[in-house]
Amino acid sequence: MWEYAVELLRESIFAYAQACHGNLGAGILAVSFLARLALLPIGLRVSRAMAQQQRTMARLQPALEALRKTHAGDPKRLAEETRHLFAREGVSPFAVAGSFASLAQVPVLVALYSAVRQASASGSAFLWIRNLALPDLPLAIAATAFTLVSMVPGGAGASGSTPSRLLILSVTAAITFTALSKMAAGVGLYWGLSSVFGAAQSWAAQRATRRPA
Predict the structure, then answer these.
(1) What is the pTM for the complete model shown?
(2) Of the candidates 102, 86, 119, the residue with the CA atom closest to the CA atom of residue 12
(3) What is the mean pLDDT of residues 117-139?
(4) Cα 70 from chain centroid?
(5) Where exactly are the structural domains of the chain?
(6) pLDDT by residue (tens digit) across 95-119?
């Protein structure tokens, strides 16, 4: 079943490539776009759940800090009072629905990644990229940038950066760039497009959660 799903996606990439005059890069982008579009309702649900969770935790942060100071020497009492706070506010510290929805996307995205990786091995030129089977440094840089934008709540203009968040973004950038600089450029196209979708979903979710009820 898994092999069939990967093969179907791989053949779809080649079919769209033929429809685009044999342009493999266009085929990869087309199938990646359609797959992400099909997952968009789930993706938006995940992004909205994450955005709402971030806003909830930000609203409760002063109360949580007060509890930490009051019960600094009693971890058990701190945990108990924290649970009471969440129960009183009617919120959960974990976005369970969003987590399940996020996991539902994983098989499709992994299958698509495998299909793109296999299709890229055939090699082809695309835009400035001479061979999609080989790594491309400019593409790796661009895809890394898109990945970072997708991680920032509300897009690149979001405020409220903290040292810990900047550290997370820096580590993510280093890992992402290192991986993409060694992967086929075809995979970089898929990665970059997926990151653009992620950034758009995050932006839409932030706009939705800012609307008055």
Answers:
(1) 0.68
(2) 119
(3) 89
(4) 37
(5) 2-210
(6) 555 556 667 778 888 899 899 988 8
What type of residue sits at position 133?
A: A
Determine the straight-line distance between the first and last CA of the chain, rounded to whole angstroms. Answer: 44
User: CB–CB of 204/51 below 8 Å?
Assistant: no
Higher pLDDT, 112 or 155: 112
> Can you tell me the distance from the alpha carbon of 122 to that of 142, in angstroms, rounded to the nearest whole number?
23
| Nearest partner of 119 among 3, 1, 11, judged by Cα | 11
What tokens were used for 208? Answer: 């939705």
Amino acid at 211: R
Q: Residue 160: its pLDDT value, please?
A: 45
Res 121 pLDDT > 80: yes
Write the single-letter amino acid at 94: F
C-beta of residue 42 within 8 angstroms of C-beta of residue 101: yes
State the pLDDT at residue 30: 92
Residues near 199 by beta carbon (within 8 Å), at least 6 away in sequence? 146, 149, 150, 155
Whether the Cβ atoms of residue 34 and residue 56 lie closer than 8 Å to each other: no
